[in-house]
Amino acid sequence: MLYLNLEKHVIISDLEKAFLQVGLKPCDRNTTCFLWLKDPYGPVTKDNLLTLRFTRVAFGIISSAYLLAAVITHHLKKYGTPLSWEILKSIYIDNVLFAADTTEEAIAKFHESIQLFKTAKMNLRDHISNSPELNQYFSQHQRIPNGPHKILGIPWDIVTDSLIMKSLKMPENIAKWTKRNVLKTIAQAFDPLGFLSPVHLKGKIFFQSLWKKSYSWDQPLDDVDKEIWLNILTETCGATVCIPRHLLKNSQNAQNAKFELHVFVDASKYAYAVACYLKIIANDSTTTMLIFSKSRLTPSKGLSIPKLRTPWIIYWLSNTAKFIIKEMNYNFDQVYFWTDFALRYLLD
């Protein structure tokens, strides 16, 4: 996901009826037999029963997504082209995406990607990009899908080329609030880049407090906790953040610019967190933007702030920086680590 932020053009597409393109070996098909009525209005008798079997991977079963991913991974690795490795890195179930720096490169990848999946008897379709010029070209070869569009599950506005991060939705028809319902509501949040971490953290801290109070899963919250939870929902539900997808869009002479990664980490008695910023220095202009963050609750057993900070400074600073560098596939000119904690403690 992160590497797409440095590319000028992003193209997303869809594999048509992807699950039905994965066949079962004839020797395995009898394990998928099931009974069906010849006449759905007739009695359940031997004469009215049909024995059918699947010849393709059934859509909707638990293993379907894994089987599709295994087949696509095998196919892409077999060809081993630069584009196949790029797609393998960023594919999401049946959604294929890749990036390009120029219009010419994007058009070349458009045709190559179609042929790549055609060799697997799969139809790659519905290509769409943030570039109007590319979309016009795609429309000459296929239909252009209507919105809304998503990149790896995140809503994407192709007109403004922005990623739209949405917080929790206000739950409806909840007769009583329990620990189970609170967890179900919190778990609905999808924020892989962590831009809404401060918003979602309040709900996580509240859920941890329910554990400390030994609530059972379906025990109704008392009036005090219910009021606290409803206030959290009022404050956090409906929050939306629009983040520019292309980080270099407003940077002049980006090719000659200096790129710095700044990683901030801190801890409190409630949570610890890391925030990563990209700093672009080009000529006389400097651009700084948040690219990734992550937060975690502190252990339920009480720990002092130094004990919380000591291991997590090492973990978050090193591992997060390695993750960002790997995912963005970029060698930064400088990497800085920031914390207000006295590092001398680490040497004791």
TrEMBL record:
Name of the molecule in the record: Reverse transcriptase domain-containing protein
SUPFAM superfamilies tied to this protein: DNA/RNA polymerases
Matches recorded under Pfam families: Peptidase_A17 (PF05380)
Superkingdom of origin: Eukaryota
Gene3D superfamilies per record: 3.30.70.270, HIV Type 1 Reverse Transcriptase, subunit A, domain 1
